[in-house]
Every structure is written in structure tokens, then in C-alpha cells.
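B., you asked whether I could sanity-check this one before it goes into the benchmark set. Here's the sequence:
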Amino acid sequence: MTLREYVLRWQKAYDKPQSRPTTYAAHGYIFKNHILPGLGEIPLSELTAEQVGDFLEERRRFGGHRPESPEYPGLGEHTIRHIHRLLQQCLDQAMRDGLITENPARAFHYPKPKKVSANVLTPAEVEDYLDAAERLGYLPMFLLALTAGLRQCELIALKWSDLDVKERTLTIAEKRSVERRELVEYEGGTRIVSLTQETVELLRLEHAKHPRSPL
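And here's what the prediction gave me:
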């Protein structure tokens, strides 16, 4: 059995039933454009850590999909780690299926990523940011993003029922998402974030503009 043959089995039997549609589609993209062209024809039982390492190095140096931009031919470290992690995940299941005794992707290790200093907004930049959001009519959402640190996918999937005005808290459903402009909910955990009084008041006023909408 080649890696390609096992990947197709893994996608159907394990990845699709357990992943969000968007995650499954992202995995499919990585397999189609990176993993399978590079490793797909190798027999699963013959895949080595050296081959995995050579493949990832090739992707890092030449894996970009922009032939019109030869000065940027490779992939970033973040993307390479996604490819490596997905390959590991797939081969872990091949081990559990009894098809291989060791996972060659786990034998290959990256050096620890370099620490990157964050570019924190200055008070003046925060003020400009919020002024622009207010002019566009999106101040409540952008203030929420700034003060609560929510990701974009979490922001657009919020419901008014998640907001506790009295306690000044917001419950985040970590498996809820918006897909093809529709709200989709999966079973998963939640977390609670505290809000400033100013943010709660802006959200309350926003809700009053369209009280019948659950979003």
C-alpha cells in the first residue's frame, strides 16, 4: 500500500467524520498540493524519517505556488509545520491500524521556533483603530476583538445569548463557526472571557438596533 492509498483511506474513514468541513477541506488542500506529490508513491512501510526530512526541506525551499514570483519560491515555517503535523497525524493512525511499527514523521524534529517580538499597538494607534471602526459602523465588534482577544471566526459566530450583561462576561463556543454564510455548531467546549463595562454597553446598544436577530 502506498502512502497515497492510505491517505485516501484515512481521509474517508477518520478525517472527514471527525473534522469540520473547513478543516477537512484545508487538509485536502495540503495533501493534494504538498504531501501526495512529494511522498504519495512511496510504499507506506518503506517511508523513512530521512525521506520525510528531505521532503519538508524541499517544501521549505521550493514549495511555493507562485511561479511568477521566483524570489519567493518556498513555504514559510508556519505552513511547513502544518504539513508536518498533518502527516504525523495520518501516520499515527497507520500505526494504530497495524500497518507500520513506527511513525517516520515523528522521528523528524524541528528546532524550536525563534521567539518573535510582538508589535503592540501604541495608545495613539489604538485610538486611530477605534475611530476608523466607528466610522465604518463596526465599533462594537472591533472593540470586542481588541479587548477580549477573540479570533475572527469566533467573533462572527457569536450569539446574543452568549453575552451576560450583568456579569460582564461572554461565553465562547469553541466549536461554533460560520460556513458558507451559515452558522454551524459542533459539540465542543466553551470558555468565558470578561468584558469591560464600555464593551458591554456598546454591545447592549448594538443589540437594541436589531433585537430579533440571534447573532
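One thing to flag: The first helix runs from residue 3 to 18. Otherwise nothing jumped out at me.
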